[in-house]
Design goal:
400 residues, mainly alpha, 72% helix, disordered N terminus
Length: 400
């Protein structure tokens, strides 16, 4: 292991493009997570028998193709990138980095555990918290070594999943059966708040283990790639890769999109067994390329006048990404579970994307309003207080 490199000193206290990318990632995360609340058959071995029209299948196919397993990768990459910003912050403050990061990750773990038990059994904060500790231990890797380890993680995870799917096919498992689990979920989320709470708490550990197995390696890989990008300041404009963007897109976009379309097709028509598992494995290999394509396209757009305005609208969402992620779970619970209206399995698929857009625009307005008067989002403020061991200013300090 090489000697840790000095953390780069950023050119600005906060990179607006990084915040904007994170805000964009929140849209994709919401587009995926809403189905875990709205459709009790989501991620099960069977399609929902209540919504079987061609339009219903098309909506689910589009979501699987363009959103599933893409945006948590972007969020993970930006987590790794922000890790280097934390290093730079500690260096500017002349404070030891490791104690600060340990406090930060343990605080995130606590928030994640509460989130998973109360609101969403598929939460990812606890995974980020623990893998962030691994990244802390790996921060001494050279950029080349970190990149190689990331590629090994992505390749091995994808190939192992494909092998598992091939094994299922050899046993004749072309499709699966969901059993009673979707019905139990529909009853729990459509019942009382206590039933919803019991369901979340009862499934949290099982879902967390599944996330570790299915998303853990790719999440750590994107942490590492984001860390490398942060050390090289790749997201500081003017972008050093701008001249090669078209070449990279010509490779990453068709391969990433092809793998996503194949996975979405098998997930829609052969759910719960060998073909879907193989498709997910292929997606693990190709989804990072589609994620890269999204990032490159958006960064290129940010250089135009229209893109700069979009960047300024997305950035507040990204600056409050933790608060907005938790708010999404709260809003979805209020709409679909026993905590609120109990609309689980009562909203047809074509309405789901429209609802996502409405909720996202609401979060955009709330974030911009909050940051006019506060330096940090409420959860970011708490996380920063624990990280620094001091109370930051709650409201913005106005100059006399």
């Amino acid at each position: 292991m090489n000697t840790p490199a000095t953390a780069p000193v950023t050119r600005t206290a906060r990179l607006e493009q990084v915040d904007a990318l994170r805000g964009f990632a929140l849209f994709g995360i919401l587009m995926v997570n809403i189905w875990a609340f709205a459709d009790p058959y989501y991620a099960s071995a069977s399609s929902n028998p209540d919504y079987t029209s061609a339009t219903d299948h098309l909506i689910r196919w589009l979501v699987s193709t363009f959103f599933e397993a893409k945006f948590y990768l972007l969020f993970s990459f930006l987590f790794g990138y922000s890790f280097t910003l934390q290093m730079a912050s500690a260096e500017r403050a002349a404070e030891p980095f490791v104690p600060r990061m340990l406090r930060r990750q343990l605080a995130m773990l606590g928030i994640g555990l509460v989130h998973g038990l109360l609101l969403f059994d598929g939460e990812i904060l606890s995974l980020y918290a623990l893998l962030g500790l691994l990244l802390l231990g790996l921060r001494g890797l050279s950029a080349a070594s970190a990149s190689r380890l990331a590629l090994i993680l992505l390749s091995c995870a994808g190939l192992l999943i494909i092998a598992l799917g091939a094994g299922l096919l050899s046993l004749g498992a072309y499709t699966g059966a969901a059993g009673d689990e979707p019905l139990l979920k529909a009853a729990a989320l459509g019942g009382s708040a206590l039933q919803t709470l019991e369901f979340n708490a009862g499934h949290w550990l099982e879902t967390l283990l599944a996330l570790w197995l299915l998303q853990g390696p790719s999440t750590l890989a994107m942490f590492l790639l984001g860390y490398v990008a942060g050390r090289k300041e790749l997201l500081v404009a003017p972008f050093s890769f701008a001249q090669r963007t078209a070449q990279w897109l010509a490779i990453s976009l068709p391969i990433g999109l092809g793998g996503a379309m194949l996975y979405a097709y098998w997930a829609a028509f052969f759910p719960g067994a060998g073909l879907e598992v193989i498709g997910y494995g292929i997606s693990q290999l190709t989804a990072p390329l589609l994620t890269v394509s999204y990032g490159l396209l958006l960064l290129n757009l940010f250089q135009s006048d229209l893109g700069q305005r979009l960047c300024r609208r997305l950035a507040p969402l990204g600056r409050m990404s933790l608060s907005n992620y938790l708010l999404q779970s709260l809003l979805l619970n209020l709409l679909f579970s026993g905590y609120g209206l109990g609309l689980v399995n009562r909203v047809a698929p074509p309405w789901i994307p429209l609802l996502v857009i409405a909720l996202y625009l609401l979060q955009m307005q709330l974030s911009a309003h909050w940051l006019r008067h506060h330096q940090y989002g409420p959860c970011e403020w708490l996380l920063r207080a624990i990280t620094l061991g001091a109370w930051p200013n709650w409201r913005k300090v106005t100059k006399a």
